[in-house]
Design goal:
- This protein is α/β, with parallel strands linked by helices.
- The protein has a single domain, classed as TIM Barrel (Alpha-Beta Barrel), CATH 3.20.20.
- The protein has eleven helices and eight strands.
- It is globular and about 70 Å long.
- The two termini are 38 Å apart.
Length: 217
């Protein structure tokens, strides 16, 4: 499973990139706004830091506007993946961009039917939002299972990118289901390190070592 980090904060990306945990990055207009930085400058800096795909999202809602914005975003770096919404115009843009050699991340997916459309249009990634489905009482991980099952039955090259991750168990469940990618906020990545027995065990080892009066150095 590949880990993408879901942020536009360059410092967060650098921190986890140094740990070897960043296979790519996903951004969106909300994350760019939260960073307070210029979108193009931010994407350029991230692309220079990370070898994998960096999703940069169009903000236009019409096909012509999406294509114009995508052209500008693609010019930033070779590893930019164009992010489009799962609308009719977005699927049309996905097809055109994919045919032109661009990696496209189709976002805001909430059903298996939508995921089929994205795959047919040549999307490199489909981004189902599990947390937002859970928020309204639906089964987010159930959707991942459906999409993985459907994609496995056909010759689709589209990778399942689990988005809107709320906690570490979303990551674990996505891995168990065979999802290709999970995009995780920095907060959730930090939580994945934590277990009370790890802390307790380390404290015990250090206490016992202190009693010996020894030093490795």
């Amino acid at each position: 499973m590949k880990f993408f980090i879901d942020t536009a904060e360059v410092a967060e990306i650098a921190e986890f990139n140094d740990l070897g945990l960043v296979d790519g990055v996903t951004t969106n207009p909300s994350l760019i706004a939260k960073s307070g930085r210029d979108m193009v400058d931010t994407i350029r800096e991230i692309c220079a830091m990370v070898r994998g795909p960096v999703s940069a999202e169009v903000t236009a809602i019409d096909f012509a506007g999406m294509m114009a914005e995508a052209e500008k975003l693609r010019a930033i770096a070779e590893n930019v993946a164009i992010k489009v919404p799962l609308t009719e115009a977005g699927i049309k843009a996905c097809k055109a961009l994919s045919d032109d050699g661009a990696d496209v991340n189709v976002t805001l997916c909430f059903s298996a039917a939508q995921a089929i459309l994205a795959a047919k249009a040549g999307a490199a990634f489909i981004s189902p939002f599990v947390g937002r489905l859970d928020d309204i009482g639906q089964d987010g991980m159930g959707l991942i299972a459906e999409i993985c099952d459907i994609y496995d039955q056909y010759d689709f090259s589209t990778e399942v990118l689990v988005a809107s991750v709320r906690h570490p168990m979303h990551v674990v469940e996505a891995a168990k289901l065979g999802a290709d990618v999970v995009t995780v906020p920095a907060k959730i990545l930090k939580q994945m390190f934590k277990h009370p027995l790890t802390d307790k065990g380390l404290d015990a080892f250090l206490a016992d070592w202190k009693k010996t009066g020894q030093s490795i150095l």
